[in-house]
Write a structure and sequence with these properties.
Mean pLDDT: 95
Order of helices and strands: EHHEHEHEHEEHHEHEHEHEHEHEH
CATH architecture of the largest domain: 3-Layer(aba) Sandwich
Number of strands: 12
Number of domains: 2
Low-confidence stretches: none
Shape: globular
CATH superfamily of the largest domain: Glycogen Phosphorylase B
Number of helices: 13
Distance between the termini: 48 Å
Strand order of the largest sheet: 3-2-1-4-5-6
Strand content: 15-25%
CATH topology of the largest domain: Rossmann fold
Length: 321
């Protein structure tokens, strides 16, 4: 059987599909599993041993280009974890025989197996909804998957070289201070500065600040804020897979609920993560795919007094880690 799994949005969203993809491959090892992803997720998809092929959804190339790519592969079935009109119509035009997707949005008319899930009710996490959708194809599929889901043979070597190049002699606690989603779901740079200084003062961990390739301004700002502290700054220009290998060796990854949090959890790094104080953006929906015992979740209240109380809790936890 040739199976196509479609998830064409951001990094964290794609990572929430990986347990379902792994389980599909485990259930039917002889099947070929292809993913359709946005370009930013291409290299990560390529290093997952349970993914056989990758098709790119390049929005600027249009629906017919994607339909042509899909039709060429003669898939037996497609499972679209999160749909939009373009990817739905492309699969319809490609005449994929069985097209599975959630029964939401106008795009559902282009699928011939629609599954009612009501994800907005948050009865389970996003990755669990994805597994449930995959079980439409294999109803008796085992839902247990290995953790960490993605490992690398050369991760320790990558990390050791990073430590030598940055004169790191202690275990690493990393902070990713970039803002994702609502500002209520993250600390301000001033608050992050206070947290980082508290950890540095203990001298138990080497603090590393990580930044995405489009966060150069923030990268420069934090260097000014912490210029008197022993902190290493890493602007991620070496690609997503290199970054995944690197953070797999960190002792803790501290961030808002963003793609890098999901990446850290995917590769087995313990995480401390900040979520917005709403059900839709909560840890109940967006807990990551890694071992739940390695995840610490904090929902940041909008009330100023409660926020300061939460800050004190987080600061105390980091100091005792």
């Amino acid at each position: 059987m040739k199976i196509l799994v479609v998830r064409t949005d951001k990094l964290g969203d794609f990572i929430t599909t990986l347990p379902a993809i792994y389980l599909l491959k485990q259930e039917s090892p002889e099947s070929s599993v292809t993913v359709c992803v946005a370009p930013l997720n291409k290299h990560l998809a390529e290093v997952c041993p349970f993914i056989d092929e990758v098709i790119l959804y390049e929005k600027e190339r249009g629906i017919f280009d994607l339909a042509k790519k899909i039709k060429k592969e003669n898939f037996d079935v497609s499972i679209t974890m999160f749909s939009n009109t373009e990817v739905a119509l492309a699969q319809f035009l490609a005449r994929v025989p069985l097209r599975i997707a959630p029964a939401t949005k106008i795009a559902q008319i282009f699928y011939n197996k629609r599954v009612r899930q009501r994800r907005s009710e948050v009865k389970m996490a996003e990755f669990e909804y994805n597994i449930e959708l995959a079980r439409t194809l294999f109803p008796h599929m085992n839902c247990e998957y290995k953790q960490p889901l993605l490992t690398f043979d050369d991760a320790k070597q990558i990390y050791d070289i990073f430590c030598i190049n940055n004169d790191i002699k202690r275990d690493v606690m990393a902070f990713h201070v970039g803002f994702g989603g609502s500002s209520d779901a993250n600390w301000s740079t001033v608050e992050y500065e206070r947290l980082i200084r508290a950890v540095v003062k203990k001298r138990k961990y080497q603090v590393v600040l990580t930044f995405g390739p489009d966060e150069k301004k923030l990268y420069e700002e934090m260097q000014i804020r912490l210029r008197d502290e022993d902190v290493v700054y890493y602007l991620s220009l070496d690609g997503l897979v290199y970054f995944a290998k690197l953070i797999s060796q960190f002792k803790l990854f501290v961030s808002t609920s963003t793609g890098t949090y999901h990446l850290a959890s995917l590769v087995g790094c313990p995480t401390m993560t900040f979520f917005a104080d709403s059900l839709f953006a909560s840890a109940a929906r967006w807990k990551s795919v890694g071992d739940i015992n390695l995840q610490e979740h904090y929902m940041l209240p909008s009330d100023a007094t409660k926020r300061e109380e939460m800050f004190a809790r987080v600061k105390s936890r980091l100091e005792e880690f």
